[in-house]
Design brief:
heterotrimer, A mainly alpha (767), B mainly alpha (142), C mainly alpha (115), B: 142 residues, mainly alpha, globular, C: 115 residues, 63% helix
Chain lengths: 767, 142, 115
């Protein structure tokens, strides 16, 4: 299992090389991996039907309770199958679509990285691992959306997608950590076994809102839906993959995954139900307004995501069945439609539906496939999409609390979707042949095999609905619902209210389709909608961030060393001083057990005088001399107070410092008096405040022993263990030799740095 | 630089340098028992060479040192790091001290040990590092 | 003596910060030297001052006779002094080089060179 999850990442590393060496047929060859994974996952179906869920254990970071456990149940298996299955066709398709593209090898690499992240995401049992994969999908999808990186718009769209999803990801992380803390475990299999623990957690509301923020941004729910249509900047194979089975479904996956633990409350019902329904309606409405062939599909994806969210929120047995059925149906027809849209765009050179026409003779296979897939999108029998839609209507009608609201919006969106499905299936193909930038002909096999197979599956599952029901939908519903559920899917439900609603949607949809041109013209005049969308909000936030960043950089990073220093010193003084005087008792001890002799006082006075003179003198030589005085005074202090080694070291270093200063300083100009007395007084005040604080702090800690010094032990060991009588040296070269090693490396580095700097200059001069 | 050196300084440094070098070796070897050690000894030796540099010039100082100071601090780092390796070979943690006391006629016992190798490494790093800096600066001035 | 040393350390810190707040490069170097001395002396002082009891063990004994000054802070300060010198040398050369390139001793006039 670990190998299965990681194989994508491994192949990602080798894909560019493979793609280059194999050449044209690389897409076919590389698709063997997802195809193999698909077969591998298929093999789990019997076990999952039998046992419900399997957990496969690998430890990763045991100390932090992070493991690489994989949870295989109906839900994760359904997703894994979709990702690997559709992924297979996408890789083949990309070989045709991006044929001859200079960056195709890079594309494969990112694509496999993305696919592996998605598979890891849906199979993770550990919340932290899940989150890592979640963020990996954000990053890899950023690279995919911005694949055409020389295009400014593509970069902008990619960044927008990244920022929105990653911002949500941060919220999600907080939410997941709260779940882990509430449940006392980060393993999904353990958390979901007892959902009441989460629902009774005092911070349940905050937890749900954080998780929802993550899922809603990822799955493009209102008001975060704007990034998804912009993700169309990606090459079509990417859009097809992102929209049908992967990226945007990640949010839906997590909602479904956590449903047994978090669901069943009013917050969950109304939060998901209302947002989902609104998203569904918004998506359909925006689809109706669009004429770009990919934009139409993108907005219908928003609709589908809204529908799924709403159904999970409703959370009844029926609603979950509807959600899983809809998920499968949508993945099949959406991937198919996207690949067809890419084929149309690829062959005609335009993305605008209005500029295409009469292609049915030139691209007959595309036409037939588009019709089948669009029928599934519209929800007409005998396609699988019809079953999904019937179930969705039924679930909305029975929804607790929001039945009316959900049903009305569902029917309204269904009407618009029917119209757009009809537009998609007929406009480019019927009527007179229109002149397009490229001369169109049928797409190559690599670009047709995917859509044809997937559309055919949509038809097969519709006619023989028991196959998906028995194989995967049943067990996935059980996983989401949290209890075993009998699932039987039928094309014919009898004459009931959902059927009536379907008929109503189809009839009204066809009417809307006939009037589409007029509707479009009407929307043309309603440009004000664009001015108030959430996307404007995003832009304002981004501009605001830029402004704040510029402002704070201007204030904080102003380039004056003394301003930084003053800030540091004053904050230290204020924070430390405040803590010392107001939080602690501010007591200092003036007791002096050691006492002092007059020559010690003399040395101390020498040091202080030296420091003061060095600060005020206007002569460089005077400053160097007084610095020497300070240094030798300190050496004397070391010697007087039982530190002979320190004394010798200080004297040697002091000598060398003077040599160094003499070597360098006389190259530099005389001291300049660059500041006026007011500035000098201000700086002196800052300096004295720090000096005063240090004095007070030393007096405060004087004589306080918090812990017994460890050096007693070191002293005791010195002779018997380390055979040395100079304890300081024994510490340096034996007890703490590793520290010393680090320190001599610093000395070596400083020397190498100095040498490099000087040599660098000498070579400059030679040139 | 030659202008800086007076006759007295030159004469003095000729005598002082060998004395200081000898003293530095003394400080290094006794460092484990009496004040001294690699750091101090390295600084003493470097001071001797720096004094010589002031009396004469960078070129002559460089000739006098038996190796390029950069090589010295490289060797020192190598020696200090390798001093931690032997204990690994006998299954002890890195930098566990190991001792091989040797009885030398006339001098008494010499405590050959990994800490001694380490201290010699420190000595070479300090001497080489300081001299690299000082020589580089002096040569840049010339 | 601790109270006297507290004043000495405070004075060193004050002098070093004052020097580092000057606009002249050379004064910045002097401030750095003072700061490094101040920090070493601070550690030395707070670890306790002991007169005439160096952490040396007389030959043939296992412990220093009649108490000892804490050797651990001394070991830390010893390396700090040497490293302080290395870092100072680096800073001095950096400043010398900056002066050569910019031809200015005034820190304020160096602001725009990296923009």
């Amino acid at each position: 299992m670990l190998i299965a999850v990681l194989s994508g990442f491994i192949l990602a590393a080798f894909a560019p090389w493979l793609a280059r060496s194999v050449g044209d047929k690389a897409g076919w060859m590389l698709s063997l991996l997802p195809a193999g994974l698909f077969v591998y996952f298929l093999g789990f179906i019997p076990a999952v039907i039998e046992d419900g869920a399997l957990v496969i254990h690998y430890t990763w970071i045991p100390g932090l309770d992070i493991s690489l456990n994989f949870l295989v149940d109906g839900l994760s298996l359904l997703f894994a199958l979709l990702i690997s299955g559709i992924g297979t066709f996408i890789i083949i398709y990309a070989g045709g679509y991006l044929h001859g593209h200079p960056h195709l090898p890079r594309f494969y690499a990112i694509m496999f990285g993305f696919m592996a992240s998605m598979i890891g995401l849906v199979l993770s049992d550990n919340l932290i691992t899940l989150f890592v994969f979640w963020e990996l999908t954000s990053i890899t999808s950023y690279l995919l959306i911005g694949f055409d990186h020389e295009n400014k718009h593509a970069r902008w769209c990619a960044l927008q997608g990244l920022l929105v999803t990653v911002a949500g990801g941060l919220a999600l992380l907080a939410g997941l950590v709260m779940i882990g803390l509430a449940a006392g475990s980060f393993e999904l299999s353990e958390i979901l076994a007892d959902g009441d623990v989460l629902r009774e957690y005092p911070l349940y509301t905050a937890m749900v809102l954080l998780v929802l923020a993550g899922c809603f941004t990822k799955s493009a729910q209102v008001p975060f839906h704007f990034w998804l249509p912009n993700a169309m900047a990606a090459p079509t194979p990417v859009s097809a993959f992102l929209h049908s089975a992967t990226m945007v479904k990640a949010g839906v996956y997590l909602l479904a995954r956590l449903n047994p633990g978090l669901g069943g409350t009013d917050l969950w019902l109304y939060g998901l139900g209302i947002v989902g329904a609104l998203t569904m309606f918004t998506g359909s409405f925006m689809a109706l307004r669009s004429t770009g062939i990919k934009a139409v599909l993108a907005y219908t994806t928003v609709m589908a995501l809204g529908t799924l969210t709403m159904l999970i929120g409703i959370g009844t047995e029926l609603a979950i069945t509807a959600a899983m059925t809809f998920l499968l149906a949508h993945a099949l027809y959406k991937a198919s439609l996207f690949m067809l849209a890419g084929a149309l765009d690829h062959e005609t050179g335009t993305k605008d539906i209005l500029e295409m026409g009469g292609l049915r003779r030139l691209m007959p296979i595309t036409f037939v496939t588009a019709c089948v897939a669009a029928l599934s999108l519209a929800g007409l029998p005998p396609l699988f999409g019809f079953i999904a839609k019937e179930l969705m209507f039924e679930a909305s009608l029975q929804a607790p609390g929001i039945a009316f609201f959900a049903t009305v919006l569902a029917v309204a969106s269904a009407i618009m979707i029917v119209a757009m499905a009809a537009v998609f299936a007929t406009r480019p193909f019927l009527g007179d042949l229109k002149k397009t930038p490229k001369h169109p002909h049928e797409a190559p096999l690599s670009m047709l095999i995917g859509p044809v197979t997937l559309a055919a599956l949509g038809l097969l599952f519709g006619v023989a609905a028991f196959i998906p029901a028995a194989a995967i939908v049943g067990s996935s519903v059980a996983a989401v619902y949290g209890a075993p559920v009998e699932v039987e899917l039928y094309l014919w439900h009898g004459i009931n209210l959902p059927l009536m609603l379907s008929i109503l949607a189809v009839v009204a949809g066809v009417v809307l389709y006939r009037q589409w041109d007029r509707v479009l013209a009407m929307f043309e005049r309603m440009t004000f909608i664009d001015r108030f969308g959430p996307e404007r909000g995003y832009e304002h936030v981004m501009r605001g961030l830029d402004w704040i960043a510029a402002w704070q950089t201007g204030v904080l990073q102003n380039g004056y060393l003394r301003n930084y220093l003053t800030t540091i010193v004053l904050s230290t003084v204020v924070v430390t001083g405040w803590t010392f005087f107001f939080r602690a008792d501010g007591a200092i001890s003036l007791e002096d057990e050691t006492g002092f002799t007059f020559y010690e006082l003399g040395v101390a006075a020498l040091v202080v005088m030296g420091a003061v003179v060095a600060s005020v003198t206007s002569s460089r030589l005077g400053a160097v001399a007084t610095l020497g005085m300070v240094g030798f005074g300190i050496a004397l202090i070391y010697v007087l107070f039982s530190a002979p080694d320190l004394g010798i070291t200080q004297i040697m270093v002091e000598t060398l410092t003077v040599i160094l200063l003499v070597l360098v300083l006389y190259r530099l100009p005389d001291f300049l008096n660059l500041s006026n007395p007011v500035v000098r007084m201000r700086d002196a005040a800052v300096a004295v405040s720090l000096g005063g604080l240090m004095t007070v702090l030393i007096l405060a800690v004087n004589g306080v022993t918090v812990n017994d010094p460890i050096s007693d032990q070191l002293v005791a060991w010195s002779v018997p263990e380390a055979h040395g009588r100079n304890i300081v040296n024994v510490i340096l070269v034996d007890f703490r030799a590793l520290d010393t090693l680090g320190e001599i490396f610093v000395v070596g580095l400083a020397a190498a740095g100095v040498y490099a700097m000087i040599r660098f200059r000498a070579e400059d001069k030679q040139k | 630089m030659t202008t800086m050196g007076s006759l007295i300084l030159r004469t003095a440094s000729r005598f002082l340098l060998p004395l200081l070098l000898l003293f530095s070796v003394f400080m290094l070897l006794r460092g484990h028992d009496e004040p001294g050690g690699g750091f101090i000894a390295g600084l003493v030796a470097a001071t001797g060479f720096a004094l010589y540099l002031f009396a004469f010039d960078a070129g002559r100082t460089r000739e006098l040192m038996w190796a390029d100071p950069r090589v010295l601090f490289g060797l020192g780092l190598l020696a200090a790091t390798l001093a931690g390796v032997p204990p690994i070979l006998v299954g002890e943690p890195f930098f566990t001290a190991m001792w091989w006391p040797i009885e030398v006629p006339g001098l008494g016992e010499i405590k050959l040990s990994t800490p001694l190798v380490f201290d010699i490494g420190v000595y070479l790093v300090v001497l080489g590092g300081v001299m690299t800096i000082v020589l580089a600066l002096a040569e840049a001035e010339e | 003596m601790e109270s006297v040393m507290a004043v000495v350390v405070g004075a060193l810190f004050a002098a070093s910060v004052y020097m580092m707040l000057r606009r002249s490069l050379v004064k910045l170097v002097i401030g750095l030297i003072l700061l490094s001395n101040a920090a070493n002396l601070l550690i030395f002082t707070v670890s306790g001052l002991t007169r005439g009891k160096p952490p040396l063990i007389p030959e043939g004994m296992d412990l220093p006779a009649g108490g000892w000054a804490d050797p651990l802070p001394q070991a830390l300060i010893l390396t700090a002094i040497v490293i302080g010198f290395g870092v100072l040398a680096f800073a001095v050369v950096l400043i010398r080089r900056a002066y050569e390139v910019v031809g200015e001793d005034d820190l304020d006039k160096m602001r725009s060179t990296d923009l």
